[in-house]
Fold this sequence. Notes:
It is a single chain. By secondary structure, the chain is an alpha/beta fold. It has two domains: 3-185 and 237-263 and 304-317, NAD(P)-binding Rossmann-like Domain (Rossmann fold); 196-231 and 266-302 and 327-337, UDP-galactose 4-epimerase, domain 1 (Alpha-Beta Complex). The protein contains ten helices and 15 strands. It has helices at residues 12-23, 60-67, 83-88, 90-112, 151-170, 208-217, 238-247, 269-281, 307-313, 321-337, and strands at 3-7, 27-32, 50-54, 72-75, 119-123, 174-179, 182-183, 196-198, 201-203, 223-226, 232-233, 236-237, 257-261, 267-268, 289-292. The strands form five sheets. Strands 3-2-1-4-5-6-13 form a seven-stranded parallel β-sheet, with helices on both faces. A two-stranded parallel sheet has the order 7-12. Strand 8 (196-198) and strand 9 (201-203) form a beta hairpin. Helix 4 packs parallel to helix 5 (151-170). The longest helix has 23 residues, at 90-112.
Amino acid sequence: MSTIVITGSEGFIGGYLVREALYQGYEVIGIDNLSKYGVISSSYSRNSAYTLIEGDARNSELLLEHFRDADHVIAGAAMIGGISYFHSYAYDLLATNERIIAATCDAAIKAFTFGRLKKVTYLSSSMVFESTNSWPSKEGDERLHPPPISSYGFQKLAVEYFARAAWSQYRLPFTILRPFNCVGIGEKRAKGDVDISSGNISLAMSHVVPDLVQKILKGQNPVHILGDGNQIRCYTYGGDLARGIVSSLENPNALNEDFNLSSPVQTTVLELAQLIWEKIRGSDSKFSYILDSGFEHDVKKRIPDVEKANRLLGFHANTSLEEMLDEVIPWIENAIAENLI
Length: 341
């Protein structure tokens, strides 16, 4: 049985990754300092094939201890949050995440010399395309256009440079994967979240799908929209992303390559808000909205070119936005009742 170490295993995407890796038959070691959500109970918590190590991904010695006995490493640990994070934690997003990726690469470079570790898979972000002025964004555009303006986007681009530099100097194999706008269940109020008022609702996560769902479930009318509402996103189900990430581990076409992992379906924020409204309030109820000032780093368009991932990995994000919302809305409704968000 092959072993994967997943850093940041107790995070939002990390939870989907652990479940998918166990489903595909891997032994999984998760490393997480529990700084975001604290101790959480998951469906896989008692799975004998899963071991959680409570520790800091900035500790290269801790990482090395587990990397040396692994076949694969998925480097997912990072400080990450919604758009408000980019402003509230501008320095920490840069400094903390840089220390995490440096420790990860230091440990992986050493572990690779022991002969078992095959590859490190790095989770980057669509924010590496923050400053682009042409769409859809394809692999390689991140090095042709100006660098990201936000410290988060800039650091995620640095992750990709770490991956390529570790290969160039130490021949540590890599795959770089860029998720776009992950949607799913399990995301809740983090311990360090900063409340942002939007109309009469106080929000913490500042991720557009859960925020809009909360507003409408809590009775906000008209619905407050950040920005002009014409921001375009391609929403991608967490389960689809996890399948693509885990399936890429042994795929020879993924070796030393980078890929956008996303649905290609474009949706504006206003279209999203109206769809959520209709699912919660019904199509006969009139949808109305107010436009509020947006955030500085609220990118107008995040539109990926997914041809490379389709062609080389056989990856297709098949879950529709409506299917995602049918799962997410009841989960958030229950989380509100339990005061989790």
